[in-house]
Specification:
With about 550 residues, the protein is an alpha+beta fold. About 20% of the residues lie in helices and about 25% in strands. The protein folds into two domains: about 80-165, Purple acid phosphatase-like, N-terminal (Immunoglobulin-like, Sandwich); about 170-280 and about 285-540, 4-Layer Sandwich (Purple Acid Phosphatase, chain A, domain 2), CATH 3.60.21. It has eleven helices and 24 strands. β3 and β4 (about 115-125) form a beta hairpin. α4 (about 190-195) packs parallel to α6 and α5 runs parallel beside α8. It is globular and about 70 Å long. Bound molecules: fe (ii) ion. Fe (ii) ion binds near residues 208, 263 and 461.
């Protein structure tokens, strides 16, 4: 979702706060895209651009034309106890052309110097897959850190660092959680901060890894390649390539495996299975073709294990007996059009968000999981926004949410934790069918709560301007007994620290918008919320859980 001035006004209008926005200097005549002026912590969007905007910023941001084939770095992802995906791409040097097929060799070792070799092999990449390389390394040992690199045409890639999932009895899992990295809105200080942490098993990216807009259509700090909105396969590939030239994103991919899902902007704003708010068939062609292009580029460029059906990214990854990480696709698989009123089918008891097949799989996984924690990584907010309808969230698919809640209640499923991105704000929520009913739900004890939800902030994508947040926040908290924490302004990331006795989500937030380079500071610890085993009650902690004292060495910086 893009929080345009128009959508913000719709939301605030529903809260009876429209006049506040007008008073804060917004008008309601924003275009459907590019309407972010006046929104976000980056002080006035396009109008507030500093000297770091425009061509100068781009020129200093993208590294000079590299003399290596491996200019998009390395990446890894989707770890299991015996396998992990490793990724790179080869690019022709200036003035040269690649053959139709390029053999890329890979090497895997237990140490950064590659003296303890584990395996090696070769992968033939081609133009048909945009010269991306993806190898599913198998036969590995559980809970083990590996280093990997690639060679082609006499050149060697940077060294990547990755880690397999544990098996059996597991005492602790630590995951970084991120979403929503609009390059137009600034620099990826969050990714840089996370790259310096070497204590994480994986990064969970909840989507909006790329944005589809052209330069200055949504955020005016950095320009995009290509400069126009992306709609074709070539466009989507170029946009991923542009993101992967970012040194901060490259650094994070180099050090830690990613577990990704997509949100709407990997295709187009507020997408659903048959279209998108930001897609106009009359001028941009058939949605099916654009969706297929977006899916193909994602499959080529992301370190995700590929299902035989392109576009099927819902899957489960296990961390021993401690965590089943269930990843959903609430966007492109089974979601019908967002609607605002009952006449259009909002309250249809058959209404789907996941689609029947994914929903059946999800319910099966969550109700039969034997892991201590069932962590559900997905896109859009599940908790109810009282007196407010954002039809793009689970609020717009109430029957689907009720079926999930009914399943948890009927099967007495405990220890379910929902992770959400999409809306560039931070929330901690106790999930219950009836948040306003004190007979069935008590926020002081969590009685009647079924699960908890953590909504994570944007890496760069903007939330609300401070002046509006100051007015909205008290009203949200007053009317939402199930909401324990909200931050509507700051960017940042989360750390999930999971043990058999409790799961903690710690938030690290920036005070300001991330429009400047170099970064003034890392995101700082802001708050932490925990849920205990066999409870769905959120409790605030004073500090983040400590990282393990011994961590495997970083992959050397190229
Ligand atoms: Fe987003």
């Amino acid at each position: 979702m893009q929080t345009t001035r128009r959508t913000l006004l719709q939301m605030l209008g529903a809260l009876g706060l429209g006049s506040t926005v007008q008073a804060a200097g917004c008008s309601d005549d924003a275009p459907a895209t590019g309407g972010d002026a006046g929104l976000g912590g980056d002080a006035g969007g396009d109008a507030g651009l500093g000297s770091d905007a425009g061509d100068a910023a781009m020129a200093s941001d993208v590294p000079p034309e590299p003399t290596t084939l491996f200019r998009h770095g390395v990446a890894s992802g989707d770890p299991t106890p015996e396998a992990v995906i490793v990724w790179t791409r080869v690019t022709a040097l200036a003035g040269a052309r690649l053959d139709p097929t390029v053999e890329v060799r890979y090497e895997v070792a237990r140490d950064t110097a590659f003296t303890m070799m584990v395996t090696s092999g070769a992968f033939n990449t081609t133009a048909e897959r945009d010269y991306t390389v993806k190898v599913d390394l198998t036969g590995l040992s559980p809970a083990t850190t590996y280093y990997y690199r690639f060679r082609a045409l006499g050149m060697v890639s940077p060294v990547g660092r990755t880690r397999t999932a544990p098996r059996g009895e597991v005492a602790q899992v630590r995951l970084g959680v991120v979403s929503c990295s609009s390059m137009g809105h600034g620099y990826f200080h969050v990714y840089r901060s996370l790259a310096r942490r070497l204590d994480l098993d994986a990064i969970v990216h909840l989507g909006d890894y790329i944005y589809e807009y052209g330069t200055r259509q949504y955020g005016g700090v950095r320009e995009y390649d290509p400069p126009t909105e992306i709609t074709t396969l070539s466009d989507y590939r170029r946009r991923y390539a542009h993101y992967r030239r970012d040194p901060d994103l490259q650094a994070l991919h180099q050090q830690t495996p990613f577990i990704v899902t997509w949100d709407d902007h990997e295709s187009a704003d507020n997408s659903y299975s048959e279209g998108a708010e930001n897609h106009t068939p009359s001028t941009e062609g058939a949605w099916s073709a654009r969706k297929a292009a977006a899916i193909q580029a994602h499959r080529e460029w992301m370190p995700i294990r590929e299902h035989e059906t392109p576009g099927r990214i819902w899957r489960k990854l296990a961390y021993g007996d401690l965590v089943d990480l269930i990843l959903l696709d609430t966007r492109l698989w089974g979601r019908p059009l967002q609607v605002n009123n009952a006449d259009a089918g909002l309250t249809d008891p058959a209404r789907q968000l996941l689609g029947a097949d994914q929903e059946q799989w999800f319910f099966q996984e969550v109700s039969t999981s034997r892991a201590r924690w069932k962590v559900v990584a997905q896109q859009v907010m599940m908790g109810q926004l009282v007196q407010l309808l954002n039809s793009d969230q689970w609020d717009g698919y109430p029957a689907a949410r009720q079926r999930f809640f009914s399943l948890l209640r009927a099967m007495m499923v405990q220890n379910v934790v929902v992770l959400t991105g999409d809306i560039h704000t931070s929330w901690a929520i106790e999930l219950t069918e009836t948040p306003q009913d004190s007979m069935s739900y008590d926020p002081a004890t969590g009685r009647g709560a079924l699960a908890v939800e953590f909504v994570y902030p944007g890496v760069t994508s903007p939330g609300f301007p401070q002046v509006i947040a100051n007015t909205v926040l008290p009203q949200v908290m007053r009317e939402s007994r199930h909401v324990k924490f909200v931050d509507l302004v700051r960017r940042g990331y989360g750390i999930l620290d999971i043990t058999p006795t409790r799961l903690q989500s710690a938030l690290y937030l920036h005070v300001d918008g991330e429009t400047a380079r170099p970064s003034p500071t890392d995101a700082a610890f802001a708050t932490a919320w925990s849920v205990a085993h066999n409870s769905a009650h959120l409790v605030q902690d004073q500090a983040a859980a400590p990282a393990p004292s011994a961590v495997p060495p970083a992959a050397p910086t190229p």
